[in-house]
Every structure is written in structure tokens, then in C-alpha cells.
Automatic annotation (TrEMBL):
<feature type="binding site">
    <location>
        <position position="289"/>
    </location>
    <ligand>
        <name>ATP</name>
    </ligand>
</feature>
<dbReference type="InterPro" id="IPR017932">
    <property type="entry name" value="GATase_2_dom"/>
</dbReference>
<dbReference type="GO" id="GO:0005524">
    <property type="term" value="F:ATP binding"/>
</dbReference>
<dbReference type="InterPro" id="IPR006426">
    <property type="entry name" value="Asn_synth_AEB"/>
</dbReference>
<dbReference type="GO" id="GO:0004066">
    <property type="term" value="F:asparagine synthase (glutamine-hydrolyzing) activity"/>
</dbReference>
<dbReference type="GO" id="GO:0006529">
    <property type="term" value="P:asparagine biosynthetic process"/>
</dbReference>
<protein>
    <recommendedName>
        <fullName>asparagine synthase (glutamine-hydrolyzing)</fullName>
        <ecNumber>6.3.5.4</ecNumber>
    </recommendedName>
</protein>
<keyword id="KW-0315">Glutamine amidotransferase</keyword>
<dbReference type="InterPro" id="IPR029055">
    <property type="entry name" value="Ntn_hydrolases_N"/>
</dbReference>
<dbReference type="GO" id="GO:0005829">
    <property type="term" value="C:cytosol"/>
</dbReference>
<comment type="similarity">
    <text>Belongs to the asparagine synthetase family.</text>
</comment>
<feature type="active site" description="For GATase activity">
    <location>
        <position position="2"/>
    </location>
</feature>
<comment type="pathway">
    <text>Amino-acid biosynthesis; L-asparagine biosynthesis; L-asparagine from L-aspartate (L-Gln route): step 1/1.</text>
</comment>
<feature type="domain" description="Glutamine amidotransferase type-2">
    <location>
        <begin position="2"/>
        <end position="213"/>
    </location>
</feature>
<dbReference type="InterPro" id="IPR001962">
    <property type="entry name" value="Asn_synthase"/>
</dbReference>
<keyword id="KW-0547">Nucleotide-binding</keyword>
<dbReference type="Pfam" id="PF00733">
    <property type="entry name" value="Asn_synthase"/>
</dbReference>
Amino acid sequence: MCGINGILHLQSQKKVDERILTKMRDSLEHRGPDDKGLFVENNIGFGHRRLSILDVSAAGHQPFLSDDGRYVLVYNGEIYNFKEFYPELKSNGFDIRTNSDTEVLLKLFQLHGLKMLNRLNGMFAFAIWDKMEKKLTVVRDRMGVKPLYYSFYNETFYFASEQKALFTAGVPLKMAQDGLEEYIFNRFVAGENTLYENVKKVLPGHIMSIDEGGKVTTEKWWNLKKEIQNQPEIKNPVEWFRETFDDSIKLRMVSDVPVGVLLSGGLDSSSVLASLHHQKYKDIQTFNIGFKEKEHNEAHLAKMMAEKFDYGFHTMQLENKNLYDKLISATYFQDEPIMHLSEPHLLAVSQMAKPSVKVLLSGEGADELMGGYVRYKALQYPSLLNSIATIGNLDLFTNKPRYEKLTRYAQISKKSELVIFNGSNIYPKDIEENYGIETLPKNEYRKQIYKEAKSLYPDNLRRQALYFDQHTYLCSLLDRNDRCTMGASIECREPFLDPRLVIGLGSLEDKWLFAGKKWKFILKSAMAERLPDEILKFRKVGLSAPWGDYITKSPAFKEELESFSKSDLFQNPYFENINIKKLVQNLQKGDDHMTPYIMPLFMMHIWMKSYVNKF
């Protein structure tokens, strides 16, 4: 697990400046404090920071060169099934000299080229330079667990695990108008674009090749829609799920360093723990973030689960000055304004785990694969959304904030927009009323994914929303997990995102997801004998926090709220119609309905003040 970066000067023999490459590399030191390496040859340069997980010896040092000297590799991630390839590589004349997956990855590339990608079970972002063909190839894993950013600037191609390395190299930090619009309407920028002009992401499941002349080709090596369509029928879904999930956990325990669990006390992370216990793993440490507010707290359930399986349990709470400090740190590691609002908590719990473990298992992905969010329920009867009273009487939504949110959501009339804005906290009409912004973002990538979802699941809004989220919202969660855990120099692994589970679940009938009161039916059925009722029936809390209270009542935030009202942010013409003083005053008077409108702006203010000024 690592931070990677590189520079390729195009159409010139300009030599890579080693000092710039080194600065880029070392801006990612938190991603890899154990080792560092450089490769520079004329107009190409690679940098690498290493967090040693597999083969912690010097043998795993990167950049990694092929035995014949033709290829150079920098790689971030883990190939969990790397040992499966030993017999094949040996029978083809390759010597295996290390215990690292890096060597296997490069030798598979030498043997099969990029056709080997479909056989890898793992998370990865890597770059390979072919000295003979003078060609650079960059690749990203299926679901986008590992990040990879790039920029074409001054006839040079820069790439890195985090945007800050690109800014360190001199790529200008400039906000993109499209990105800003998407951030306001959709909470994050989806697809290959980012919040920044001239900085893009390599899309999940994609390959990008750049030759020395600057010719760029992009291809999709993994297509979830096609994979779901080609999935053979699963005869016994519950048995299949349990066996595949256990195998996914087993693969993700492959490590030469200790592995722990991020344990919320919810169904997903408890299922991870139950599988470990079922497979007789011993001495597992679990890490939890608790809240003093009862309605946000699941720590008691997490503790109960850890004790039930005789595993170690560590918990903490984050408040006042500590919360403020972690917010500033999390914004730095995120490179963008934080939008899930749980980033400071995840960073803090990862830092707490660091002395004990180097790898954490997370329950991420289960909600998007199996229908775990209440917001999907609104799509069950789209025709009834016009009649909020009817929906309310169906007892689907009981507590007031959710009902209030539903009444706002119901103002959306187009089916496509019901899916596209399903993951938003505020909707187009709210934004028009509170921000004075009327024009919707272009959302080209989101529209393209929606079209794909609609063709795969015609007339099924719930399934469309799952597929849509797997390509958008989930990517932002994975980015959050990567930044917060790697900010503490810890690797995060997501067992629910094993490709066999992602594809298989996508092929099942609705009843396996949406049956029962709280959905995720197949997971509950598979875990029924392993988990107690308190977990199987507990109301989902998720990693949520009462930010409205934090920023109005916590001494650490009071001063910040004052400067927020006068923030430079509101000099931006896009925000000229926002009466921020009025929004803040309403929040201070105790109007909680203001929180969703204030938080994206407040986090952008924090980002401008603490991050943008650094570059």
C-alpha cells in the first residue's frame, strides 16, 4: 500500500527534474512512511512511498524493474490472490524472488499484457513504463478503491495518488466551475472530473496509455453492466453469498502485518467480524468511534460484538478542539472540502488504530450493493411521491427529519433526476430557494451512468439507484476511506467489494435485496445464525454526527462560524445571491433544517482557508 507519482515530458527530450519528482513523492509520505524510491531516465520519472504490508523486506522496494530491464512499475494496492499465479509464472520460466504481489503483477504483465487484469482480485492503481516502446500505461481497479489523479500541464503528463502531489509539482490549483456546481448540487464531483481545472481521475476499471509523442488512448477493461448480464444464474443465493463473503474475508486477511476491523456496531462491520470468528481467526483488534449523543451512538453494540467473539475493543469520542483539529487535518488529506462529514472521525479512529495494526477491514459497499439506505425506499413507489401524505401513512418514514427531507425530495418530478439526486442532502428546488442558484449542473457522467443503469434495470428505479451509486456515491466513500486511513498510514480493505459479490448481487432478483422491513435481505439471511437480534434488527445509524450543534455550541467552532459569515467564498459570483448571515442566524436560533444548507459551504470555507492557502 503506497503513494505513487510520476512525470512524463511529452514530445521533448527535457530531462525530469529530480527535485520536483522528490517533492511530489514526499508530499505523499503519510501514504508510505516505511520506504521511498525514485526512478529517473531522461523524460520519465517515477516516485514511490511504501507502506509495507506484504514482504516487508527490502525486496518489495519500488519503483520495481523487470528482470530484463525493459519495464518499470510503481504500484499502490494489494493483489489478494497473488500466490495463485506462482505455478503459472514458474512454468513459464519466471523466477519468483520476493514474497510481494508487486513482482507477481509485473511478471503477469510481461506474460499476458493487460489481459491479466480480469484475473486479479484486489485493489490497485499502477503505472508501467515500457522503455522499448517508450509508452506509459496507467491502470485503476474495478471499483476505484485506490485513487489515481493526473494532469496534462506544460506539455507534461503528471500523475499521483493524491491531488496535492500535482500541486506540489506546479500544476496550478484552480477551481473548475462545473466542479463547483456539482459539489453544491450533488455533494461531490463524479466521473473523471474533479473540483479542479486541469486535474482528472483515471476512471475505475479503466486503462490509459500515453506514448512519448503525447498520443493518449483510454479503454474500459471492466464493465459492470456486461459482467452482470453474463453472470450465470446463482442457484442458492444465501449459500453462495455466505461462501463467497467468507472467501473474500479470507483473501483480505492475506498480510505480513496485523489486521484489525473498523467496527461501527452496524450490520455490515458486524458481519465482517462474524465471518472472522466463524473462520477461527484469533486476536483480532476492533476500533470504534462513539458519540455522546445517544441517537448517533452504536458503540455499545460494537463492544458487545467484540466481547462476544473475544476480540479486542477500542473506542473513542471526538469533540470540541479535537474535532476541529481533525477537521483541518482531514481536509488536508482529502484535498477537497469534506462532504460526508465523518472524515474527521474516521481519521481519528484510524490514528487510534495505528499503534496496533497496519490494515483495517471495513464494511463499506454493502449499502450500495444490497439496498441499505432509507433513501432508496422513496423510489419503491415513484407515483406516490406526489402524494406525500400517502407515503407518510405507509409507516415507511417515522421520524421527522427524514419526513421533512422526503417532502423536499418529492418536489423532483423526472425519474432520471430522482435517481441522480437520490444521494443529495439538498435538492434543486431547495438550492434555488436558499442559494438563489437555478441552473442545474451538466452532470454528463452521472447522466451516462443513469442511462446504463436504466438499460440494465428498465422500470426499476431502486436497482437503477444501486447501480448508479456503485459508480458515483460509493466512489466518494472509497475515496474518503482511502484518504482518512492512509492519512494515518493504514491500509483499508473492503470485503464486500470482492468482484464476485459485486457482480453476483447485481444479477439477483429484487427479493434478495428488498424483502423484509430494512432490506439487505440476503445479508441478514446469510448472517442469521452468526449475529444476535440486536444487530440484525437495529435501526441503522451510520457514521453520522450532529454538525449543527457542533458548529454553533462548541467553543472550538464559534470563532470559525464568525469568520465563515465573512468568508472570501461569498466573493465568488456563483454564491452572490446567498444571504449567509441569515442562514447562520437561523442555525444559531436552533433551526436544524439549516444544517444541510450550511455544511457544504462551511466545509468549503474550511478548505479554502486551510488547504488552498498551502498551495
